[in-house]
Amino acid sequence: MNKRGGVLSDSALEIGAGVLIVIIFLIFLNFVVPRASGEGFKDEIIAKDIALSIKAISSIPEDMELKYTILREVELEIKNGFIQVGSVKINTVSDLEVDFSKQTVSANKQLLIAKRGNKLEVKVI
Fold it and tell me: Which residue of 23, 33, 83, 98 sits 20 to 30 Å from the alpha carbon of 52, by its own alpha carbon?
């Protein structure tokens, strides 16, 4: 230790590192906890489920229809290349043409997802 405050600078370095660790931990909690337990998590599950359903439908060569029940109210948009539920946006791998503009879908409503040729029709019923 040098005579010019070596002890003080070591203590200050330890305190600074401790404060930095606390700040990083709080930032981590700010991003992880709301996503894992809030509405964003539920929106992400719905968006991924619809995206997987559309991917499955697009791989079937015949025309078909699928009824998908929405269990809670969501704001939904389905376009070529993405699905957005609330603030969650999921990219899709389907090459089907779809244009379902942003709508609020009530709880316990059904989406009628119909594949006709290379087009995907989505209606709220």
Answer: 33
For residue 123, list its beta bridge partners: 112
83-121 confidence digits (pLDDT tens): 999 888 998 888 889 988 899 999 999 999 999 989 999
At 125, list the tokens.
């019923």
In whole angstroms, what is the distance from residue 64 CA to residue 18 CA? 59
Structural domain for 107, as ranges: 39-124
0.90 cut: is pTM over it?
A: no
For residues 42 and 74, what is the distance between their CA atoms, to the nearest angstrom? 10
Dig out the tokens for 90 from the structure: 């999921």
89/32 Cα distance (integer angstroms):
17
Region of 97 (left: φ > 0; alpha: ψ -120 to 50; beta: rest) is beta
C-beta of residue 71 within 8 angstroms of C-beta of residue 86 = no
> Per the structure, how many domains does the chain have?
1
